[in-house]
Amino acid sequence: MTDARVTLNTLSIVVSDMAASLAFYRRLGVEIPEDSVWLKDGVGHHVTVKQPNGFNLDLDSAAMARAYDPAWKPGIGGNAIIFHSPTREAVDDIYSDMTAAGYKSHLAPFDAFWGARYAVIDDPDGNHVGIMSPMDEKYGSAPPEF
Questions:
Q1: Is the CA virtual torsion 81, 87, 89, 94 positive or negative?
Q2: What's residue 75's pLDDT?
């Protein structure tokens, strides 16, 4: 057995409509250069968006997913894609902008027990996209009972 360690560096999302997904993530504030989208016959099929922190966000069309994984099937899990905002106020501003643009709210902004301001909206494929401020313990509370 090798002593190799893995490092998470990419989140890959399969999207049903590349143009709609690009519009959503750009409006959210993700910088996606036009020339970074791989097109085939005028249709977007892949983009890798390098984030300033070294992490990558990939968007793949369903056709692309089936090309490398013939058994791929669409589905929505209970996962959240979380983007950090610079301030607590920015969470509310981003949420207001996105929902005013017609994107569906999943959780309105609230002060979460872990001390962050947090909200969730759905992307065009129904993935939960969290918007989270830096944590501040003065806004924290006891965790919920399970």
A1: negative
A2: 75
Per-residue pLDDT reduced to its tens digit, 79-93: 788 999 999 999 999
Q: Which position has the higher pLDDT, 137 or 78?
A: 137
Who contacts 37 (Cβ-Cβ below 8 Å, separation ≥6)? 18, 22, 44, 46, 47
Chain Cα centroid distance, residue 116: 17
> How many structural domains does the chain have?
2
Q: Is the pLDDT of residue 57 over 80?
A: yes
For residue 96, give its domain range: 78-146
Instruction: Tell me: do 54 and 83 sit in the same domain.
Output: no
Question: Is 138 inside any structural domain?
Answer: yes
% of the chain residues with pLDDT over 90 = 58
Structure tokens, 29: 């504030």
Shared domain for 4 and 45, answered yes or no, is yes
Tokens found for residue 43: 């249709």
Where is the domain boundary, 68, 91, 108? 68
